[in-house]
Amino acid sequence: QVQLVESGGGLVQPGGSLRLSCAASGFPFGSYNMMWYRQAPGKERELVASVTSRGDSTDYADSVKGRFTVSRDNAKNTVYLQMNSLKPEDTGVYYCRAQRAWSRYWGQGTQVTVSS
Question: Exposed, middle or buried: residue 82 (CB in 10 Å: 0-12, 13-18, 19+)?
Fold first, then answer.
């Protein structure tokens, strides 16, 4: 069955870094665009970063531009989110999503907490 499993979250101090991973299985990963979303407590889920199926184009929310980098390894069926210069407002549950036309899958999320 389809699975998206995020990992790499945790507690980090402001200014620190984390690398999230999302391992996919059960669908043709290399033909899906991939996204990272986050949801802070009491707020709606927001799109953070996206990468096309071949990894040749990326896009970012203004709030993370210059600090976050999304990438993928289609040979490993994995998408990554490198997060640098983390801020307390980056705190939230981070989800990966796979999308192709009307087909969409979500992971279960991984918690990121930025606090001193």
Answer: middle
Collapse the DSSP code of 70 into the 3-class scheme (helix H, G, I; strand E, B; otherwise coil) and give the result: strand
Average pLDDT of the residues of the chain:
97
Q: Bridge-partner residues for 80, per DSSP? A: 21, 71
What is the pLDDT averaged over residues 61-83?
98
Cβ distance 107 to 60 under 8 Å? no
Quick: pLDDT tens for 91-115: 999 999 999 999 999 999 999 999 9
Q: How far is the C-alpha of 29 from the C-alpha of 48, rounded, in Å?
A: 20
Alpha-carbon distances, residue 113 vs 11, 13, 31, 87, 94 (angstroms): 5, 8, 32, 9, 10
